[in-house]
Structure formats: structure tokens, C-alpha cells
Amino acid sequence: MKDEVPIRETMAAMPRKKGLSVFTAEYGSEVLELFESQRAQIVMTDVLMPCMNGVEMSRKIQEMCYKTPIIISAGSKRERYHKELKYIRVAEYIRKPVQIKEAYEALNDCCNKIQQGKRIPELKE
User: Fold this and answer.
1) For residue 73, what is the enclosing H or E element?
2) Which candidate in 24, 37, 64, 81 could, as Cys together with 8 as Cys, close a disulfide (CB 3.0–4.6 Å)?
3) Mean pLDDT within 76-104
4) Could you list the residue range(s) of the whole structural domain that residue 104 is in?
């Protein structure tokens, strides 16, 4: 997730407590490098990121590992990416400004599904 370091670390704490692999990064290109070497079990990102947007980054992650659930957050500019988001397997969509409770619920839902071996459904329109 591209937001401030404290927010990234706060959001990373819950999956860590559940025993899932977690890493944080500021740039989409950095996420891809980490994903290639560490294969995170969940990816949480923002649509707008420096160097590579979250949509492009998510697409590349799914090319590497289609089953990885992606939680994506975006503000009102989501409409600009709506067509692209339809073709990406997004587990959860969170509208900005991100509410910590909503983000935790999305993470918790994905964590529970992973632990139960359930398939993460695609984002519904």
C-alpha cells in the first residue's frame, strides 16, 4: 500500500498475527521485486502509486500467481480505472478515504479464506 509508513505497518500487523507472509513497499515496482522473491499471500495496494499504478502492478502479480488475492483502494478516480479493474481478480475494493475498520475487515476476510482454503471471488460490479 502506497500510503504513509505507519498506515502500511498498521495494516500489515493483522495478517502477520494470523501467520501470513507480509511485506510492505511504497512503489509498485518495489512490490513486484518483493513478490517475485517472497510470494506474499495477500496484496493490498492503492490504485495511484508512484512509478507504476496499482492496476498495472496487480495485473503483473496475477500473471505470476493468479490465486493471490488483491485488495485495492481508490478514491473518486476509480472510474478512470474501472475498465481495467474489471479484468483483474480483485478480492476487495476499498473506497478512499480508507477507514481502518473497513480495511481490517477486508484483510480479515481474505486471511480467513486463505486459511480455510477457499477461493477468493472476483470483484463484483
Assistant:
1) strand 70-74
2) 24
3) 78
4) 5-115
CB 57 within 8 A of CB 28: yes
Query: Mean pLDDT throughout 89-97?
Result: 83
Looking at the domain assignment, is residue 28 inside a domain?
A: yes
Stated pTM of the model: 0.81
What CATH number is given to the structural domain containing 43?
Answer: 3.40.50.2300
List of long-range contacts for 63-68, beta carbons under 8 Å, 24+ apart: 64/35, 64/36, 65/35, 65/39, 67/119, 67/120, 68/35, 68/39, 68/40, 68/41, 68/42, 68/43
Q: Is residue 96 assigned to a domain?
A: yes
Domain tally, the chain: 1
How large is the average pLDDT for residues 16-20? 79
Residue 122 in any domain: the answer is no
